[in-house]
UniProtKB/TrEMBL annotation:
InterPro entries, per database record: Glyco_trans_1, Glycosyltransferase_grp1
Domain Glycosyl transferase family: 192-331
Keyword Transferase set for record: yes
Keyword Cell division in record: no
CDD domains xref list: GT4_PimA-like
SUPFAM superfamilies, alphabetized: UDP-Glycosyltransferase/glycogen phosphorylase
Name of this protein: Glycosyl transferases group 1
MF terms (GO), sorted A to Z: glycosyltransferase activity
PANTHER family found in the cross-reference section: SULFOQUINOVOSYL TRANSFERASE SQD2
Organism, as annotated: Pseudozobellia thermophila
Key words of the record: Transferase
C-alpha cells in the first residue's frame, strides 16, 4: 500500500512498476501538487494502476492532517506500507502498527538532498529522528544521501536507493513524439543557427534564475547563443527586468510554462540545461535533459547532481557567478549552432530506472 502526496509525472513509472509486481493500492492526499499544478487528466492516462484520494482532514499551521488511515489499514491488511517523508501519515502508520498490534513493514520515501538533510531543524528534524527508530526502510534518491543518513541519524535502518528518474525507454518515446513541436519552436522562436542554454522550473527565488541570468551575461558568449527560461511564477517580471537591464532581451527568452510534449520539445532543442537552484531536494529536469542527450550544468546543492559526471556535464557552486559563467563559456565553445533537428541524440544517463526499481522490489520482497 502506498500513501503519497499527489500524482506527479516523475513518480508514474515507479508506481506502475509497483502495480506490476505487487497487489498494490494507492492513496494520494491531494488532487494535485501544492507547489505546482500538473494536468492530472494527462497523467492519469499514463497510469497502469488505480488510486484513491484522501479527502477527509484539516490543516494545522499550514500542515495537512488526513483522517481515516486506521480504517484503510484495517480494510486493506497490507504487508508493506510505503509512505512519503516523515509526514503525519507516516507517523500515524507507525503508531497504528503498535496500537493495533499489526506486523506490516513501513517504508518511507525521502527526497532530501544532503544539503537539505543537514539543514533540517525543529519539528522536521525531530520527526525524522523519531521515525528512524521504528521505520523498517527508507528510500533515498542517492547512495550519498543514504550514507549521510547512516553516519548522522541511524546506522541500523535499512536504506534503499531510488533516484527520481524516468523509465529510459518510455521517456525517450515521448521525446520522439515531441520532435514535430520542437521543429515548430525552432521557427517560432527563431532558434535556427543558435546555440541553446535552457532552464526549466518554477520562477521562484530558490531556483536562482536571477543568478543564472547574471552568469549568462558575464560569460561573454556571442549573439548566436540564447538562454531559454521555461516556466512561470512570482519572479517572472523581476527576471525579465533583470534580462532587460543586462541588455539580454534579444537572447534571453521567456516562452512560458509547458507540460508533456510541449515541454519535452525544449529538451530536444537545447544544447545544455542549467539547474542553478541553491535549494533543490532533487531536480528531475536533470534526468529529463540527460535522457534527451542534452548536457547539464547543475548546482552542487541539487539532489540530482549525482546524475552528472565528466561525460555529461559539470557541477558548480550556486553562489559563485564567476564559476557558472566560466562553465557556460566552456560549454558554449564546444557547441555548433543548430542547423536542423535530425532526430534524438544519444541518451546521456549513466544508469536506468529499471535497475534501481529492481533493487527496490527486492528490498520489499525480503523485508
Amino acid at each position: 500500500m502506498v500513501f503519497h502526496p499527489a500524482l506527479a509525472p516523475y513518480r508514474i513509472d515507479f508506481f506502475n512498476a509497483l502495480a506490476a509486481n505487487f497487489d498494490a493500492t494507492f492513496y494520494f492526499t491531494n488532487a494535485n501538487l501544492l507547489d505546482q499544478q500538473f494536468d492530472q487528466d494527462r497523467l492519469r492516462g499514463q497510469c497502469e494502476f488505480k488510486f484513491n484520494l484522501l479527502e477527509k482532514g484539516f490543516q494545522i499551521g499550514g500542515r495537512q492532517v488526513r483522517l481515516g488511515i486506521r480504517k484503510i489499514i484495517k480494510r486493506e491488511t497490507p504487508d508493506v506500507i510505503i509512505c512519503s517523508e516523515y509526514s503525519q501519515i507516516t507517523m500515524s502508520v507507525l503508531m497504528l502498527r503498535y496500537t493495533m498490534r499489526l506486523s506490516y513493514k513501513v517504508f518511507t520515501i525521502s527526497d532530501d538532498s544532503i544539503a537539505l538533510s543537514i539543514e533540517r531543524k525543529g519539528i522536521r528534524k525531530f520527526l525524522r529522528d523519531q521515525a528512524s527508530k521504528s521505520i523498517d526502510a527508507i528510500i533515498f534518491p542517492s547512495d550519498a544521501v543514504g550514507e549521510w543518513y547512516r553516519q548522522n541519524v541511524n546506522g541500523k535502518t535499512k536504506l534503499l536507493t531510488l533516484p527520481i528518474i524516468h523509465d529510459n525507454g518510455v521517456f525517450r518515446s515521448k521525446l520522439a513524439e515531441s520532435l514535430p513541436q520542437a521543429q515548430n519552436y525552432l521557427h517560432k522562436f527563431q532558434l535556427m543557427n543558435k546555440k541553446v542554454f535552457l532552464f526549466v522550473g518554477r520562477l521562484v527565488d530558490i531556483k536562482n534564475v536571477d543568478f543564472l541570468i547574471r552568469a549568462f551575461a558575464k560569460s561573454g558568449v556571442g549573439e548566436e547563443t540564447v538562454l531559454v527560461v521555461v516556466g512561470s511564477g512570482p519572479e517572472e517580471k523581476n527576471l525579465k527586468n533583470r534580462a532587460r537591464s543586462l541588455r539580454l532581451e534579444n537572447v534571453c527568452l521567456f516562452p512560458g510554462r509547458f507540460e508533456g510534449n510541449d515541454l519535452f520539445a525544449w529538451y530536444t532543442i537545447a544544447d545544455c540545461l542549467v539547474l542553478p537552484s541553491y535549494q533543490e531536494p532533487y531536480g528531475v529536469v536533470v534526468n529529463e535533459a540527460l535522457l534527451a542527450g542534452c548536457k547539464v550544468l547543475c548546482s552542487n546543492r541539487a539532489g540530482s547532481s549525482d546524475l552528472v559526471n565528466a561525460k555529461n556535464g559539470y557541477l558548480f557552486d550556486p553562489f559563485e557567478v564567476d564559476e557558472l559563467s566560466s562553465l557556460i563559456a566552456k560549454v558554449d565553445n564546444g557547441l555548433i549552432p543548430k542547423k536542423q533537428l535530425s532526430g534524438l541524440r544519444p541518451d546521456l544517463m549513466r544508469f536506468s530506472l529499471k535497475d534501481s526499481i529492481a533493487n527496490i522490489i527486492k528490498g520489499i520482497e525480503t523485508s
